[in-house]
Amino acid sequence: MSKILVIAEHSDGKLNASVSKTLAAAQKIGGDIDVAVLATDGAAVAAQAAKLSGVAKVLVVNNAANAYPIASVLAPQIVELAKGYSHILFPGTTYGKDLAPRVAAKLNVQQVSDIMAVHSASQFDRPIYAGNAITTVEAAAGTVVATVRLASFTAVAEGGSAAVETVSVSAALPSHTRFVKIEAQKSARPDLQSASRVVSGGRALGSSENFKVIYDFADKIGAGVGASRAAVDSGYVPNDMQVGQTGKIIAPELYFAIGISGAIQHLAGIKDARTIVAINKDPEAPIFEVADIGLVGDLFAVVPELQGKL
Amino acid sequence: MKVLVSVKRVVDYNVRIQVKSDGSGVVTDGVKFSMNPFDEIAMEEAVRLREKGKVTEIVAVTIGGAKNEETLRSALAFGADRAIHIKEEGEVQPLTAAKAFAAVLKKEGAQLFLCGKQAIDDDANQTGQMVASLLDIAQATFASKVEVDGSKAQITREIDAGLETLEVDLPAVVSVDLRLNEPRYLKLPDIMKAKKKPIETIGLGDVGVAVEAGTKTVKVAPPPARAKGVMVKTVDELVSALKAKGLV
């Protein structure tokens, strides 16, 4: 039977929403599922993880070196925890993508990136070519180290009451990497990756001032706000709002693509959205090929009108 | 300071991918190949670091079959001084590539390993991190700014929460993201000059690496198609359509 260890991403004492989706993939694999929390003092995060459905045990590693997640510091600790586990799963966030290969290489196994479906304990689907093809792969013998594509899984519910166990690891930790600072965008809006509604703007917005149209509409319907790569590259919005192959891959119930042409790169990030609404003045824009509902028109007229009628 | 840049030959990003009807892979016959766009950004950064006087030698490295020589020629045209071709005709997965690159990095005594954050064919996003892990050196992935200062570097990373800055001791691995720079357009004289630059061809055995057992491809399929949508003419129709779906 599989014995699965899910690595918990967290910050400021809060468990990241990616963990409950990673757990959903673990449940599809089946078996005993433990969660590892590496922190300075992981008690609060562990308590949140213990409540998630299907978790057998939460392992907490407390170490001052874990104050900020640095892959080269976390990896040796995870390698030590990995003993006895058949699977080590990471969320497919920048945290997991940075960290998982560092663990896989130490365990001398080929990692499986971005699993989007589970066929068996060792057989998974994953996207290649920006999601333009899906490959089914059989993991090599040994520990399965994988990242989980969050947009492909629905978060597990709460209602669990897993045991929390503090463990100590003896791995030597490197000092060659030091955290300097983070410039985080503080936003009161719903988080892009977990929001059920997302409104994204593209190059057609024309300026960061004009993005107000997008923000106002998003606030009216309680949506998170995203952007195309073109809008980010043009400097209208910060990079953490980018939706697409190289930005965030999202799966909201309702997605508005406003003034976005629909480059392959962007479409790779929204394929799992339940309903895609496209508003663009160019009737030939590729976004209309994937949209469930399309409206050709000037976004600066259409969006305020729509906002008024919802 | 010497910098090693890994480059990969991939299906050009403008090509519309077709899955083979037998599900064995994607169509690559008669398809244009180019250097992985993220690796171009890595090459460009290496050249800019040299222009700033931080780097004295740029070595490009790739692993793969004979056709990968074209990719190394592009790297040389960008400005690499020389190139190393680890020739391997079979499939190469990230762990094998990382072991080979780690061995070359060690042998060359390079202080910086630059690579794209992922290749746009397998989208694995693993090799750089694995190189760093195998050598127990620092890594900074998804870089949008690289500042080298003596034996240290400050790297700004694009992460989900925003922009993070790390300080790393060299040697270090830096995987680059889109916004680090805009790669230069290769000019004909540079392409001509690249033809005269040396490419050293070696085998995996020469760096003491064997092909690792990787994942096995069971099948490749096109993604599920979305149901055809509807076009509406007015905002009122749009509101009705959203209401009909129970979305508002």
TrEMBL record, chain A:
CDD domains: ETF_alpha
Cofactor note: Binds 1 FAD per dimer.
InterPro entries the record matches: DHS-like_NAD/FAD-binding_dom, ETF_a/b_N, ETF_a/FixB, ETF_alpha_N, ETF_asu_C, Rossmann-like_a/b/a_fold
Molecular functions per Gene Ontology: electron transfer activity; flavin adenine dinucleotide binding
Keywords attached to this entry: Electron transport, FAD, Flavoprotein, Transport
Domain (Electron transfer flavoprotein alpha/beta-subunit N-terminal): residue spans on this chain: 4-183
CC cofactor: FAD
Residues annotated to bind FAD: 203, 228-229, 242-246, 259-266, 280
Family classification: Belongs to the ETF alpha-subunit/FixB family.
Name of the protein in its database record: Electron transfer flavoprotein subunit alpha
Natural source organism: Solimonas fluminis
Automatic annotation (TrEMBL), chain B:
UniProt xrefs under CDD domains: ETF_beta
Keywords for the protein's UniProt record, in alphabetical order: Electron transport, Transport
Cofactor section: AMP
Keyword Iron included in the entry's annotation: no
Cross-referenced SUPFAM superfamilies: Adenine nucleotide alpha hydrolases-like (SSF52402)
GO molecular function, one term: electron transfer activity
Annotated Electron transfer flavoprotein alpha/beta-subunit N-terminal domain residues: 23-211
Record bears the keyword rRNA processing: no
One of the Pfam families matching this protein, by short name: ETF
GO biological process: carboxylic acid catabolic process
Highest taxon, organism lineage: Bacteria
InterPro entries xref list: ETF_a/b_N (IPR014730), ETF_b (IPR012255), ETF_beta_N (IPR033948), Rossmann-like_a/b/a_fold (IPR014729)
Family membership noted in the UniProt record: Belongs to the ETF beta-subunit/FixA family.
Record's function text: The electron transfer flavoprotein serves as a specific electron acceptor for other dehydrogenases. It transfers the electrons to the main respiratory chain via ETF-ubiquinone oxidoreductase (ETF dehydrogenase).
Assembly with partners or alone: Heterodimer of an alpha and a beta subunit.
Protein name in the entry: Electron transfer flavoprotein subunit beta
